[in-house]
Design brief:
alpha/beta, TIM Barrel, 8-stranded parallel beta barrel, 10 helices, 16% strand, globular
């Protein structure tokens, strides 16, 4: 698979809480140079990135991150604020307390509320699969589908484990036809990225993708 093809599916990610502006600026420059799907950044950097890089940069941000137990009202406020500041896409963490209480209707209602705010903007729902049982993962697939989200996402990258191929297979069997899959967390090699894309994932959340693929991508550009 060409480097450029892989990178077109990558959300070039930097969510470290201590990341400084210089790192964010470099992230954005790399995303534009290598045509990644987006940059995925903390909400605090949205407006500054938009002001410095304009409409050309696709900005994804996180809501309710990484624990997911904010109230729906708090998540909705944060989502509106992120969009007002210039976000293009939202990755929101599912309400894991409701999941563990078996209140799947509440989970669905929250997702629907966030999608109403997102409108035509892409909404990805992070379920943190490593903390859910198989039955809960299936219920999460139903909630993501019925709530109208655009993607189900495996992991925050801050949990005890990240993406797993068996979870992607489970998602594919239980999500609706309009829901896509984002694999994230622990994806550190080119082989990992290729495997998840081959499995049917449409997005990859990774912090190392550009570093791993830059040389190959530059060579491909030089061949044109």
């Amino acid at each position: 698979m060409k480097a450029s093809e892989i990178l077109s599916h990558v959300d070039h990610t930097l969510l470290t809480p201590t990341a400084a502006w210089g790192e964010m600026r470099r992230l954005a420059e790399e995303a534009l140079r290598y045509h990644t799907a987006s940059v995925c950044v903390p909400p605090a950097y949205i407006a500054r990135l938009r002001g410095n890089f304009g409409a050309e940069l696709t900005i994804c941000t996180v809501i309710g991150f990484p624990l997911g137990y904010d109230t729906t009202a708090a998540k909705c406020y944060a989502a509106r604020d992120a969009l007002k500041n210039g976000a293009d896409e939202i990755d929101a963490v599912i309400n894991r307390t409701d999941m563990k209480n078996g209140d799947f209707e509440a989970v669905t209602r929250e997702i629907a509320a966030l999608k109403e705010i997102a409108g035509t903007h892409i909404l990805k729902i992070i379920i943190e699969a490593c903390d859910l049982t198989t039955e809960e993962k299936i219920a999460a697939c139903r909630s993501v589908t019925e709530g109208g989200a655009d993607f189900i996402k495996t992991s925050t990258g801050f949990g005890k484990s990240g993406a797993a191929h068996e979870d992607v297979d489970l998602f594919r069997a239980h999500i609706g036809p309009n829901v896509r899959i984002k694999a994230a967390g622990g994806i550190r090699t080119v082989e990992d990225m290729e495997a998840y894309l081959a499995q049917g994932c449409d997005r990859i959340g990774a912090s190392a993708a550009v570093r791993l693929l830059a040389e190959q991508a530059d060579a491909e550009q030089n061949e044109k």
